[in-house]
Amino acid sequence: MALELKKSRAASTLSLTPLIDVVFLLLIFFLVTSEFEEEERKLDIVLPSATSASPMTTQTKEFVIDINAKGETHVGGKRMAMPELEELLTRAVADNPTNQSVVIRADKEVPFQPVVSVMDLCNRTGVSDYSVTTQDGPEGTP
Fold first, then answer.
1. Distance from CA of residue 56 to its chain's centroid?
2. DSSP 8-state class, residue 43
3. How far apart are CA 28 and CA 57, in angstroms?
4. Domain spans in the chain, listed from the N-terminal domain onward
5. Handedness of CA 90, 95, 96, 102 (dihedral sign)
6. Could you read off the pLDDT of 17-75 as tens digits, one per residue?
C-alpha cells in the first residue's frame, strides 16, 4: 500500500534568490575592504623608536588654584610663586592646547589684585577656559 505525501505550499513558495544576493554583496564588500587594508602595509618600513614618546594630547587635568586671604597661591595644597605657576600652566597648555581649564578659588577677604594676576597668567599661558568660583547662598550673608 503506497502512501501519498503532500508537499507544503510554504516550502514551494520560499525564494532563496534574495538571500543569495545579500550573501554575495557582503562577500564582495569584505573582499574590497580587506584589500585596502592590505595595500596600506605593502611598504616594508621599520618605524623609529623613542624612549620618551608621549601622546599629542593627554587626559585633561583641571587645575584648581587656591588663593588664601593673604594673597598666596596654592596648587594641590602646595604654595606656588607666580613663576612656578606660570611654568606649570605652560606645560599643561603644551599637553592640552585646546581644552585646558583652570578653576580659581579665592578667599572672600583677599584683595582683588592676586585674582587678577592669576587670570592674567592664564591669558598669557594660553588657558582660555578659566573660572572664578563662588559659594551659593543668599545675598549679603557673611
1. 12
2. S
3. 38
4. 63-132
5. negative
6. 999 999 999 999 888 777 555 455 555 556 566 666 555 555 567 888 888 888 889 88
CATH code of domain 63-132: 3.30.420.270
Rounded to a whole number of angstroms, the distance between the first and last alpha carbons of the chain is 107
Element (H, E) at 103: strand 101-106
**N residues, the chain:** 142
Residue whose cell numbers read 572664578: 132
CB 71 within 8 A of CB 28: no
Does pTM surpass 0.90? no
Q: Please state the φ and ψ torsions of residue 104, each to the nearest 5 degrees.
A: -105, 120
Query: Measured between alpha carbons, how far is 22 from 106 in angstroms, rounded to an integer?
Result: 66
Eight-class DSSP state of 80: E
